[in-house]
Amino acid sequence: MRKNQRQRDTPGPGQESVWDYPRPPRVENYPGVVVIEFGGKEIARTGSAVRVLETSHPPVFYIPHADFVQGSLQPVDGTTWCEFKGEAAYYDVAAGSARAERAAWTYPSPTAGFEVLAGAVAVYPGRMDRCLVDGEEVQAQPGAFYGGWITSRVVGPFKGPPGTWGW
């Protein structure tokens, strides 16, 4: 009943509602450990992630480029534009014989207020083998366009499924 409606789920102890996140989004440091696995290998691990919080979206985690295994991020042509963060550039993610096209992105010169994202990279968790936040496996935000990371610490409903585009 609620899946494609904007009826807010009530957060429990230790949880956040994505409906309490702001628009325009907010960027904040994340003090925990974030791990990305792809191609059967750990390609990134950091204790220096930041997350972007935006109304109706699960957090998007950005990891310092330096915390990715060398060669796992391969720049590709083409950019997109975010009304808040500016121009995004993309990477293919590679490990061994595995490759995920345009599965990661960065903001080389982010707009005012988002400068902390320069030098950081986000991935679509659904295109990786596994993404972990403090040891918990992440679920990907529904929909091919969004890159949110769903953990037990966030409640929705989340933008992404059919019928939610206008949220």
From TrEMBL:
Domain named DUF427: residues: 34-125
Disordered, as annotated region: 1-25
Pfam families linked: NTP_transf_9 (PF04248)
Annotated organism of origin: Arthrobacter subterraneus
Protein name from the UniProt record: Uncharacterized conserved protein, DUF427 family
Residue ranges that the Swiss-Prot or TrEMBL entry lists as coiled coil: none
InterPro entries: DUF427, DUF427_sf
